[in-house]
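Student: Hello, beginner here. Can you help me understand the protein record under this note? Any guidance would be welcome.
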Amino acid sequence: MPSSTVNSVEILFTVLRKMIAEVVDVKQTTVKSWECTEEGTCLANDGSHEARLFSSLGKEGRLLADIKANIPNSNIALGAAMKNKLHGRAYPSKEWEFRPCCELNFDLDICKFRKLKAKQRNCYTNLKIGAYWVKKEGEKVVPIVSSITDEVQLHLQAVARGEAHAVPDKVKADYKKRKLIKEIEKTVFEVRKGSEFTTSVVKQEAEFTKDMIESGQWKNANFKPYNFKSKGRVELRSGHLHPLMQLRSEFRRIFLEMGFTEMPTNSYVESAFWNFDALFQPQQHPARDAQDTFYVSDPATCLEVPEDYLERVRKTHSEGGYGSIGYQCKWNRAEADKNLLRTHTTAVSARMLYKLAQVLVEAMSETSFEKAETYKRNRQPQNAHVKLIGAV
């Protein structure tokens, strides 16, 4: 089968299904490898920038302006082709303190030579600076060698063939920096015969059906084993707070940490007395009409209202008080007893203020007060100058 018609995903699913059925054993490993980038592939096919530059020079060289105008990536090509080297002789000993008799010719990058210590530099003699392939003479770039070997192209071709191990690590690091090659990870599946290996294809049944029982097919059927470790394809998210509820929760936390006490707001059905009358909203107010308020039909009226407080509210509505003349109209008790869906949480505030007032009155009635009083008279000091007065 041609490789272009093979779907790797289908092959993987087939192998995994056979692994579940124990037909094959699969070992999965991750392998790092190198491959050429788009630019690296072009250089592997057409040659490196510096090699193409060298080929275009001829024996007489070429004007620098002409090179920059007509040769792509001319700056990269010139930099690589004119890379400076140190030529000379060196003592090959690993010990820098003495020099053996044997000497070798060498080529060394100037940048590497500058990093050497003084004792290490002493091992090099007859140092001369020369160019790699070309040099600049006035306004022209001329070759200084008759032929070259394009090592960059050879290295990239080796990477493209899957032989990156033949390229030195330092060279690969340099090519990676130049974005000519990149390191990739591949998942490799090693497939071997399993305990239930067979060459015949037998369909595994996923369900135990009524027809299997009636026909007896279940006796010879090959059932697919259950995977109890599977977590499913999609993790369903549970419910979450509405953004406004999140903001409300944050404000609630802040106030509670500041020492505030939260009022009970779970009384969604409220009496008209606490929702309107206790807040001194007149019974003829338009907001109390049916189109603005949802009244409850069953039960239609509230169970109880504090009579003493109701009487004070009624009197204030009808006759006034506390510096007010009231609404000067008849106040209807039946209107105040109606049940409705609470239209605002201020009704809760009215209830809490009444309860707090009752708690305060009860606490004051059960508390003894004491004070020390001083006074002055125009006579000699006596013990009576300070007297204690107790009141219950």
In short: The first helix runs from residue 8 to 20.
